[in-house]
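Bump. Still looking for DHFR domain-containing protein structure tokens.
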Amino acid sequence: MLPKPLYRALAATSIDGKIAKRADHFSDWTSPEDKQHLRDTIAASDVIVIGNNTYKLAEDRLQKRNCIVLTSTVATIQRIHSLLTYMNPSNYPLADLINESGYKTICILGGTQIYSYCLHNNLIDELHITVEPVVFGEGLPLFNTPHESNFELTSSQQLNKRGTMLLKYTYNKKDLQWKPPGFQTFPVRSP
Ligand SMILES: NC(=O)c1ccc[n+]([C@@H]2O[C@H](COP(=O)([O-])OP(=O)(O)OC[C@H]3O[C@@H](n4cnc5c(N)ncnc54)[C@H](OP(=O)(O)O)[C@@H]3O)[C@@H](O)[C@H]2O)c1
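Sorry for the wait, here they are.
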């Protein structure tokens, strides 16, 4: 049997947990050290998975990268050229396309809707979060879907003197019943 692909999601957040101020906010606020981590991780990946909003903002920088762009503007899959594929995950499972293409290492680049789609479909094995020492006080969260998952911290590293922190987590399959102290579970309403 072929080994399962590794899905690695990368995100930079503010201290208050936002990935952007608005949907059209370009990620130019991250540190040089985070950008280097992004470049290194992309270089070690077979393909990038990215939402159409983020792709439109970063298209210039991604032209030489192999990208799958998630969008509702195509029925299933539209291959534009050898490095660019548009696909609609509502009509064709992303995991099927990844498996059929033989990709082994996947870099999930967001934004919120794509991180949420991947979380909801159990497609995040590793989560790298770079916390930049800034506060937005508003903005887009990392995830926007009600989906409970547990992750385990595998490493934490201070990347620069300003205090940019790189936190690496792996999905914790074993401990699905564990809940953090104070975690609220809501009763299921009977019909
Ligand atoms: N800080 C970071 O690390 C980081 C990383 C990435 C992005 N960002 C920021 O995040 C913001 C964008 O995030 P976002 O959540 O607005 O957009 P997004 O996730 O980049 O893209 C959303 C788009 O993806 C498509 N899509 C999503 N789910 C789909 C589904 N289930 N089926 C079909 N198509 C689907 C839709 O495209 P169509 O409208 O074409 O149908 C949707 O409008 C930007 O500001 C960007 O800079 C930050």
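The first helix runs from residue 32 to 43.

Edit: fixed formatting.
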